[in-house]
Every structure is written in structure tokens, then in C-alpha cells.
User: Fold this.
Amino acid sequence: MKIIVAIKQVPERDAQVRIDAAGKWIDESGLQWALNESDAYALEEALQLKEKNGGEVVVVSAGPERVGTTIREALAKGADRAIHIDCDDLGSRDALGVARLLAAAMKPENPDLVLTGLQSEDLGLGQTGVIVAELLGLPHATLILQVEKTETGLKVKRELEEGWFQSIELPTPAVLTIQSGGNKLRYATLMGIKKAKTKEVRRVTASELGVDGAQVVVLERIALPQKQKSTQMLPGNAKEAAATLVEKLKFEARVL
Amino acid sequence: MSGILVIQEAGRNRISFEALAAGSALVELTGLSLETAAIGDPNSNVFVETSGTPPAVAHAIQHHLLETYTSDGYVHAFEQLIRKLDPSYIVFPHTYQTRDYAPRLATRFGQVLTSDVTAIEAGPAFVRQLFQGKMTGNYRHQGDGPCFISIQAGAFRANPPQEGKTTILPFEPQMTDDVIRTSPGAPFRGAAQTVDLGSAQLIVAVGRGIKDADNLPMVQELATALGAEIAASRPICDNGWLPMERQVGSSGQTVAPKLYLAVGISGAIQHLVGMKGSQCIVAINKDPEAPIFEVADYGIAGDLFEVVPALTEAIKAAGQ
Ligand SMILES: Cc1cc2nc3c(=O)[nH]c(=O)nc-3n(C[C@H](O)[C@H](O)[C@H](O)COP(=O)(O)OP(=O)(O)OC[C@H]3O[C@@H](n4cnc5c(N)ncnc54)[C@H](O)[C@@H]3O)c2cc1C
Ligand SMILES: Nc1ncnc2c1ncn2[C@@H]1O[C@H](COP(=O)(O)O)[C@@H](O)[C@H]1O
Assistant:
């Protein structure tokens, strides 16, 4: 089974993000970057499927130079090779624009299975994988926790709201967007990190892929969220704040 | 190009009515007319109850191949209705079902779904969260073609029903079974629930700020001192540090205790929807900008490894 995993590099989770001078995006200088969480689960699922059924795992990432480190991390965990779609104008592409890049890079590979994360932690669009499926003309399923190969295709476990699940059978090739928590994530081993250095990373540009920068939806500005509720922030050191809180919960909110 | 089409989801009345309210907000801004559509029996779904000024027309889409939800079937059916009506705006409730098919539907029209919208401003500009709620972004649709948006749960308030009459028009899409490539099974529940967080009066919920499973006893001690149930955000359960049944949020349990004490939880929307209804919310987080403080009544901006033990002590002391 040939599996392609779309991986996105996003600001590290606890990073302090600041708005840039133009108010259009965040100030990226000095930020730490990481692999998007659900993409890590997508990669894990791909690696486990390969271990069970054989085949190849190829990771694809669109972004500037810096995403090279995230690609190496995926290779160190066990992906066989990578395609880096080299572009530093991701911010001025909408979901369709990014999906076009990914689909164009994936198509000539003729994968049996495409996995993406279900949602990126920065933009949170929750749809790039589904659009890729449409662009490739493949069936898809979203919010997937487990994937099993069957005689005719795949059987997957899909998460529904409020603790419900369902299983879905679908033919391959197909696109799945992976939800977090389906597997235990592996760490890269020292051996893996060494080997990653020798693995192929092919770089392509948007123009080589024949994808323009047309936009249907434009992100005009970003801002800090407006406060809706007046939160009483309790001052002092830990001990003082704790004591005040107990008082407030007893006598003001009357919930203790 | 004509009006605003609000897609309602059968069995999901509340969020469908919120989508209608968002549709009404667009009516105010654009002066366009409002219509609605849903898949399913016109006598048993969202059309029967309504909210706000009833839309003049409701399109009831019916076909035996749509009895069970599939993304292929829904994309196919809605594509035909949209081509027929040619609306300027199409508004969805942001449910798991919408996430599953609406992006694909928008792609058919060369469009992009602006997902999980929390507000609509003049322009119209569509506001949505970025960076898991740490920022917001204003999006604008450009060019020709219908504008697709989905509305976040709880962002718009469903309007009280008004007098008026809706004409229900049946719509039967042309489709054959080869359109549908997936075979979905019936929904099932995960492992049996042994804790009912829904009826708990006091809840201490722990998030990724706890760093490691080895630190959980510290939070457990706080819960014990309070006589509270322990709950968690998704990553804690994903890691297997606490069982799935203790997860609060859109894919876990919905709770509404007297006191919800969130420890090291950032406050992503998928978590908030499961606990916003709590009577009193307390957040402990080292990041004073964390979105959880948006919904908290009381906040302590500090290191949980100092605050939690101090709070346990304070509660024990107050109990004596
Ligand atoms: C479809 C879908 C469904 C989902 N369903 C759910 C769901 O049901 N429930 C759910 O919870 N999530 C759900 N999520 C995930 C959700 O989007 C968030 O990723 C998750 O809630 C984040 O968990 P967290 O707040 O514990 O972790 P983080 O977002 O990593 O936050 C950790 C917080 O801890 C703080 N912190 C760190 N160290 C300390 C310290 N020493 N002292 C104090 N504070 C500290 C940080 O400032 C940060 O705010 C879902 C996501 C999707 C896309
Ligand atoms: N620039 C990118 N490079 C590679 N994969 C991406 C990129 N952007 C989005 N994806 C994939 O699409 C998923 C959903 O992203 P989004 O639609 O932005 O929430 C992510 O989890 C990734 O798997």
C-alpha cells in the first residue's frame, strides 16, 4: 500500500503568538515550530499500516524553508521519503489554494491512500483533506480513529459527536482525515534520526506544479478576541490567590 | 444569484436555528431574502418547529439514497439544489456532518467554505477563530459564485419563533446508487460509561498543562479535597492518562456542574462547548491570554504546580 501523509508545520503549542505590524498575520520571528498534532496521528496510522501490510509512506508538506525540520522529523519516525512544496506565500492562499498544491503533488504518485490531519492548529479550517479528496476525485471519510485494510478496500472507525462512533467501508484509493487519539505516538529513535538524513526529500515549487495563487476567500486581518465575560482575576502569589478563591467560591458564588 | 440559503440538519434543531439566526443577520446586511433547505421528511424535521421570522420557502430534499448520511450523497443532492436556486450565500451549522461534506460541496463550485464562523460584520466580513481561540480572523469572500459559510455552535442565538408561514417545496434530486462510494455502519457507543459527569456538582478538569501522567495525583488530591469528580481535556485522554469517559467537550461529555475548575486547559472551542453551561467556572493557567479566561468567572494566572497544592491546602483548611 502506498500511503501519502500531508503534514503541516505550525507554531509550537505554548508559543506566545503576536500580531505582525500589518495586522494580517502573526509575527513569525523567533517562533518555535512543530508538527501539527492530528498530522502526527495521521503519520502514526500510516506507519502502522505499512508495518502490517507493507508498502511505502511518503510525506508531503507545503511551506517555506523552515518546514524542512518537520519533514526530517517525519522521516526520522519512519516515513520513507518526502515531497516539500516550497512556497513562502501560504498566508495568501486559501484552503482551496493549499489543497490544489497538495493534490498536484500527490496525483502523479498514484497513492492507494491519502491521510491528512483533521484540522490544523493555526488556521483550524478543518477541511484541506476533504478538498484534496474532491480534487483527486476520490472518496473520503473524516474524523477517523482506526484504519483496517480489507479485501476490497478499507474499514475505518469514524468519530461522531458526544461519544458515538460508526464504522465505514470504502474502496481504495481514498482520502481520510485523522482525528487524534487513535494510536499511541512513537518517538524518533537515534537510529531513525541518522537514517532520515539519507532519505529523499524532493522539492517542487507551486509554478512547477502548475498551481496559481488565485484566492476565493481572503483573510483580511487578525485580532485578539474580544472579551465577552468579565473574569475576576485573583491577584497575589499562589497561596494568596488560592485563599481568595476559596472565600469567593464560598461567599460570593456560593458553590462550596 | 438571489438569496440566502440556510441548510438545516435534521435532528440538530438547536444549531440549525442558530444557523437560521446567522442567515437573518445576513439578511439585515444584504437585504437578500432567506430560504432554507434540509434533507429528510418535511413533516418530521427542522421545518416543523422554527425560530425567528419563518423563511418564505423551505426546500425538503428527499430521496431514498439519502436516508443514511453519506458525504457523496449529500454533496450530490445539495449541488443540484444549489445549481437550481443559485443563492448568493449558503449557511450551514458547523456540525461534524457539515465538516464532512460541505468543503467538498464548495469545491464543486470552485468555492471555499469559511468554516466555524462566530460573527458576521459589515462587508460582510466573517469572523472565525485562529490559533485555537487565541486570535480571531476576518475573512472576506471575493469574486463571483456562491459564498459558503458554516456557523459555530453557540455563536448566534436562535430567535424566538415569529408568526408567519413557510411554503414547503419538495425537491427530489436525480441520483443513482453508483454516486455513493462509501458504506456507513450504524452509530455505536464507545465503552460503557461508568461515571456520569453530567450529574456531578463539582468537577476538577485537567489539561495538557499537567505535562505528565505522574503529576496527575496532585490534581486528584484537589478533587478529593473538594469532593469533586475529575475530568479532562482531550489530549489527556488521547494519551491514555485518564479514561475516555472522563473527557469533556464536543467529542466527550457535556457537563453543567455548580463548579467547574479548569487546570492547565487552554480553552479550545471543542472543550468549551462541553462545559460553558457550568454555573461557576474557575481557570488556573500560566498564560493570562489563554482563551479559557474568556468564559471563566474567576481566574488565577499562575503556575498550576504552585496554585493547585496551595488550593488543596486552602480547601482543607476551610473545611475544618
Ligand atoms: C473535531 C474535534 C473534536 C475535539 N473534541 C474535543 C473534546 O471533546 N474535548 C477537548 O478537550 N478537546 C477536544 N478537541 C481538541 C481541542 O481542539 C484542543 O486541542 C484541546 O482541548 C486542548 O487541550 P488542552 O487545553 O488540555 O491543551 P493545550 O491546548 O495544549 O493547553 C494547555 C494549557 O496549559 C497551560 N499550561 C501549561 N503549563 C502550565 C502550568 N505549569 N501551569 C498552568 N498552566 C499551564 C498552557 O498555557 C495552555 O493554555 C477536539 C478537536 C477537534 C478538531
Ligand atoms: N501547508 C500544508 N502542508 C501539508 N499539509 C497541510 C497543509 N495545510 C493543511 N494540511 C493538511 O490538512 C489538514 C487540515 O488542515 P486545515 O484544513 O488547515 O485545518 C492538516 O492537518 C494537514 O494534514
Observations:
- Chain A touches chain B through 80 residues (CB under 8 Å).
